[in-house]
Structures are given as structure tokens and as C-alpha cells.
Amino acid sequence: MTSKQEKKITRLLETFDWMFGVQNYTRTLQVADEEEEGFEGVDMCCEIEIDELYKALRITLYPKFFRCSEKDMRKLLLHEFCHVITHHFKRLVLGLLNGELCTMKELVAINEGTTSIIENLLHKFLTDGGKHYKQAYKKYLEV
Length: 143
What we know:
This protein is an alpha+beta fold. The protein has one domain: Zincin-like (2-Layer Sandwich), CATH 3.30.2010. About 55% of the residues lie in helices and about 15% in strands. It has 4 helices and 3 strands. The protein has helices spanning about 5-20, 70-95, 105-130, 130-140, and strands at about 25-30, 45-50, 55-60. Strands 1-3-2 form a 3-stranded mixed sheet, covered by helices on one side. α1 packs across α2, α1 packs antiparallel against α4 (about 130-140) and α2 packs antiparallel against α3 (about 105-130). The model has no long low-confidence stretch (mean pLDDT about 90).
């Protein structure tokens, strides 16, 4: 990754930090040397790991990521940050698949938390058009 790419990516990720409410998380950006096979055998471009306990994000960029257009890179990073919204449900379902029980209270808490994140994002876009987010998203494509 060039220093120019790292600067652009970091600036975009800082906007996503605020947009998705993880601005107080430790964020690590790493570049993998080798491709990684993902869902249904397709090579991954990037992935995010979310550590809710220690409030940390690790974003890994695979070689395929750097072969994408800047528009696609931006969309891929946005996709990874969307996992911030869904990771609680994923954790719950994986637990169920492994025979762990879930209480109604836990399910309601996860549902309400996820709904609140979506509500806050939509509220921002419906009240002021998400101007700051839009500007930062668009600026990523600028040289």
C-alpha cells in the first residue's frame, strides 16, 4: 500500500468511525501478503474483525483490494463497516449453531441496539442529508 493510499483510506475510515459509532475503538489497518478465500470460494478483498469486549477493529486489505477501482475500494470499505451493525446478530446466531442458549432479554437488547444504529444513520441523512458523510465519501475519489 502506498502512503497516498494509506492516507486516503485512513481519512475515509475516520469518517466511517463516526458514522458507525466506533470512533473510540482502536482501529488497526493491515495489508495481507496473500489472497484469502472467502464466502463460497471467492477471494476476499477486505474484511473487518470486531472485538466488542476490547473495543477494537482490525481491517485487513487483501491483494485483490488494490486491483479494484477507487470507487469499488470505497464501497468495499463501507460494506465492511456495515458489519458493525450486524455483528451482534452474527455472534448470536453462531452461538445458537454451537448449542449456546439465548435469552429473550439478550435477543431484545441486540435487536434494539441494531435498530438504534440504523435509526441514527437514517436520522442523520433525513435531517441534514448526511452532508459531512457525503463530502468525506466523495472526497475519497479526489486526488
